[in-house]
Amino acid sequence: MVRVLFLLMISLLLQAQILHAQTDTSIGLEITGKYGTDFMALAADICLDQPGEQQKANAIYNWVTHNIEYDVKALRKFPKSDGDKAILALKNRKAVCDGYSMLYTELCRAAGLQAVNIEGYAKDWIFDNGDELYIPRHQWNAVRINGKWQLVDATWGAGGLYQKESFIVRLYNIMFRHGRVSARSLRFRYKYNPDYFMQNPEVFRLKHLPSDPLWQLTDTAMPVSVFEAGDSSVKAFNLLHSTPRQSDPRLDKIATLDEKQKVFEYADRAYAFNHRFPLILSLKNNYRALSLIDRAMSDTLVSSPDLMLKDAKNDLKKSLDHIKDQKKSFPAEYSKLKQKNRAKGMVAKQHIRRIKTDDKRLIAQTKKYTKASESKGVRAKKVQVGIATRMRKVDARKIDEVQTAKVKKKDDAPELITILDSVKARGSRITALSMQTVVQRVQVKEKIMASSTLLDSLVASLTNEDSMIRKEATERLNMHDSYDDEVKKWSGLLVQQKYYVSDTLMQNYVEAFDTVTTRYVALQKIHIQILDLYKSNIRSLEQYRKWNNTDEGVKKLYTDCAEEYIAAADSAMKDNSTYMQYLNGNRTVFGALGKANKRQIKIVEYMEKAEKNRQNVEAGTIVRKKAFDMKENEIQRAAVQKGLKRMQRVVDKIDGVR
Questions:
Q1: How many whole angstroms separate alpha carbon 231 and alpha carbon 233?
Q2: Which of 160, 426, 515, 595 has its CA 20 to 30 A from that of 221?
Q3: pLDDT value of position 529
Q4: Burial of 93 by CB count in 10 Å (0-12 exposed, 13-18 middle, 19+ buried)?
């Protein structure tokens, strides 16, 4: 199994290399002359040094993708442009998809290549998995190269849409210059993509689906429902059901037809493929009716023009019925799109609010622990000063300065024995407490090491988290939304990283901080107890010296006690100094963590503005698309009504002749 997967990976890699190898990214770019609308002259110049069909088609693709700008204003307004769209694209150097496609076809034909415009469905920035597709809204090309039909999309190869402000510049301002953010309108960016020239048909239909299933260029047509379900469904279908088939006499014949003839030829096939597209049948019936009317009027050999006109009238009525059927779908279609847009906005809003809430909680927590580190540091410094003061007051030579009482006590006096017993008992207590300091110090050291490991993991996790949130923000800036795989990927990873890794590590780290500080405070208390015991012993021995100055062993005991006191104080100061360094370091750590969360909030706020802009643009686009569809529907209805009037004039004329 592993070997099969390995071979499959190698095969896919080789296919990818071949795919890129077949596109020459350098040819056709040097042509900068002005040719007006002369397709022949421009095509001749582009293809002058290109020896074969593939090189010519490639050079034309490169020229179109580098010289025709996507017309965003046209996208906003959905205008009904008059005239030849290929000519307009060449004249204005701007176009939407049909202009790109028709221009590419004209230039290919001018260069002696067979090319055709293909109308179909495409997963644009508004599309989400599960959306139902109705009217085809995108256009691309097929070009015949060395006997095989190849798929080309110059529109998508030219670049893409984005929100106006540069993400990197804005992000830099947010992070380092406290820049303010504002959502802007869509812009087109040239971003040449060689992948959309001669793309493998099975890869191409991940994002493109022709309304005529023949142009899928595979031996098995993929249903529209599979396309609507998303990329994973398409890939599964490709794997199990089909292989590319790029030579077919039916396609060669279709490519010779004009646009009306093509509609007439493939309308039934397109409607059978997607029953939500009855408008294609309306076009067919209308074209057929007009053809019958023309024949009835002009062909003198027609024996029964009345029957022919009756058929034309039936076709026109059918055309009106199909137009009505298409119009009936608009309310439900656009209502779903509006509801989905609101739902996407709500999902994004909840996601962003959750991030903000968590970051604000973490900021409050880091502030709390920053202040705790500072206040604990102040207290530790006071302890340090206190211990230093104690050390200055200790001097082994002070025993010689003790004034002996006028009345001395004997060596076996109960008071002296009690003092020595107390000193001995305190000494035992000091020994026990000293052992505790050793244990406590080891435990603190282990906890600090574990805390350091936690911090390393936390920093690594936050770095990953930061990368994920930036990538999600970038995808949202590029008009992807909460339902798109591009956003779902990073938001899903971010949720996992943030709430199940980083937050857990943060909680463990602050718990470790609490444990370390608690143990250090306990260690401080033990040190103070030891120093207090030493201090008590020194005072007791000084009292002993007042009552009896003949016992030289007491003097040595005092000297040893003073030296041990100083050593104990020095040990306490070292532990306390380490504690202060730990607190100071954590004050910096918590401050940095707080800044990271603040920076994340700023990025999220930018993401939020990008999402609001996307939602507004999508809402506006939905409204405009509906208005465009309604207008187109009315235009189609008016054309049919015009056909009915024309037919009636022909009937009246024939009746008048009789």
A1: 5
A2: 160
A3: 96
A4: exposed
Cβ-based burial of 626 (10 A; exposed 0-12, middle 13-18, buried ≥19): middle
In angstroms and rounded to an integer, the radius of gyration of the C-alpha atoms of the chain is 42
pLDDT at 76 over 70: no
CB atoms within 10 A of CB 616: 14
Backbone angles phi, psi at 142, to 5 degrees: -125, 140
**pTM of the predicted model, to two decimals?**
0.76
> What is the distance, to the nearest Å, from the Cα of residue 568 to the centroid of all Cα atoms in its chain?
59
Share of the chain above pLDDT 90, in %: 71
Residue 449's H or E segment, with its range, is helix 414-477
Tokens, residue 219: 């031996």
The answer to whether residues 174 and 181 touch, using CB atoms and an 8 Å cutoff, is yes
Which residues are 342's β-sheet partners? none
Element of type H or E holding 572: helix 552-657
Chain-centroid distance of CA 355 in Å reads: 15
Coil, strand or helix at 188: strand
The total number of residues shown for the chain amounts to 658
- Annotate 195-252 with three-state secondary structure: HHEEECHHHHCCCEEECCHHHHCECCCCCHHHHHHCHHHHHHHHHHHCCECCCCHHHH
d(CA 170, CA 166): 6
